[in-house]
Specification:
The chain contains 14 helices and eleven strands. By secondary structure, it is an alpha/beta fold.
């Protein structure tokens, strides 16, 4: 009895080899995938074939039963392969577990990644830590370098001058999107005031936030105070008409309803309205107060709306600025503005790399001064 194992990627070639070695009477008694190939996605076949050549392989087999020799041999081989399969199963599970841990994306991994770091790096986003690790000498030292904020600032994408109408196309439309209560209407009013009063631009306001009755009144109040024309739109068609009727404006600011960003129907409806407005720049509002998983979800779920830049709102309502590390770890979308209060139009400032790095490293300026 001859028994042989054949491994290779081509079943055809394995069959040829078996026929060549063991003859046409050979029987394939096991068919499977070899080694770790089943876990690593590269199919490598393993065939075990037997052929009775009349030789005395029988000494390998127990003589306890009267079954034909090749059957006993197969029983022995079966047991061996069962044990082997169980071992491979265990190895496969280990490989899977190691791969998942190595990805370093979960909060558990974040905790581990930051465990040995000094404050405040301990709670930074793991992906952000991966980006900065080894890039800034002395970042994690007890005595960090004096220009650390400048150096760290390089890792926060910002759009320092979010210009309106800089490409000569008028009107430039800026739409504000983001979760409910993220500060869209308030921020729109701040920008409208800034661009109309300080930059002397001719600003028009469109609101598509007809979802809540009070929302239209809220923005109308601001528009009236600033002496700006305003249009309410209920559909993509109306949005197109409103843009058309605002042809004389330098810039159009468009407010949108905050919808549940996990609801694909609501998000597609919003996208339809945005698509009716061109040329469009979309600002996504991300409150600094959001917990990190929610912040990541906000970024991911709004990718459909292809935001051009971010506004980090409510920076005054938190004393922890890890949110910036989450944003920089999650996306390359630059931060254009920060808002730091409810006052219109005062509480908004253009984002700078250094300001963000200082917030992340040292917290609020007032707090620093008081300390
Ligand atoms: N503390 C603070 N509150 C803000 C800021 N921006 C907006 N808000 C408040 O957040 C609430 C929701 O703002 P709103 O503009 O209506 O959000 P919207 O639902 O996204 O349009 C209001 O009470 C705003 O005054 C900010 O930067 N800081
Ligand atoms: Mg609103």
């Amino acid at each position: 009895m001859k028994i042989r194992s054949y491994k290779g990627t081509s079943l055809e070639k394995l069959h040829e080899a078996i026929a060549r070695d063991l003859g046409p009477q050979a029987m394939i008694v096991h068919r499977g995938q070899a080694g770790l190939s089943r876990f690593l996605g590269k199919p490598r076949h393993e065939l075990i074939a037997v052929a009775d050549d009349g030789s005395a392989d029988a000494h390998l087999i127990s003589h306890a039963s009267g079954a034909p020799e090749w059957k006993k041999l197969l029983t022995v081989q079966d047991r061996k392969f069962e044990a082997l399969e169980a071992a491979l199963e265990r190895v496969g599970r280990d490989v899977e577990r190691l791969t998942a841990c190595g990805a370093g994306r979960s909060d558990a991994a974040i905790a581990t990644a930051g465990a040995n770091l000094p404050e405040p790096m301990r709670s930074w986003d793991a992906r952000f830590l991966e980006k900065v690790r080894g890039q800034i000498p002395g970042l994690f030292a007890a005595e960090p370098p004096p220009d650390l904020a400048e150096e760290l600032g390089e890792f926060f994408p910002v759009q320092e001058s979010f210009r309106v109408g800089a490409d000569g196309r008028r009107p430039r439309i800026v739409a504000l999107v983001g979760p409910t209560g993220s500060g869209k209407t308030t921020t729109l009013s701040k920008l409208a005031a800034k661009w109309s009063l300080e930059d002397h631009l001719n600003v028009g306001v469109i609101t598509a936030d007809t979802y809540r009755i009070a929302a239209v009144d809220q923005i109308r109040e601001y528009a009236t105070l600033l002496g700006l024309e305003m249009k309410v739109v209920f559909s993509a068609g109306e949005a197109r008409q409103a843009v058309e009727s605002f042809r004389d404006k330098d810039v159009i600011l468009a407010d949108t309803p905050g919808r549940n960003f996990f609801d694909p129907v609501a998000m597609r409806g919003l996208k339809g309205i945005l698509q009716a407005m061109s040329p469009l720049r979309t600002l996504l509002l991300t409150p600094a107060t959001l917990e990190r998983q929610t912040l990541r979800a906000v970024i991911r779920q709004h990718a459909l709306l292809a935001p051009d830049a971010l506004v980090v709102t409510k920076t005054d309502e938190t004393r922890s600025y890890d949110a910036f590390t989450v944003l920089a770890g999650e996306t390359d979308c630059p931060v254009a503005f920060l808002t730091n209060g409810q006052r219109v139009p005062e509480d908004i400032l253009p984002a700078t790399r250094k300001a963000i790095a200082e917030l992340v490293l040292y917290g609020m300026r007032e707090e620093r001064a008081a300390a």
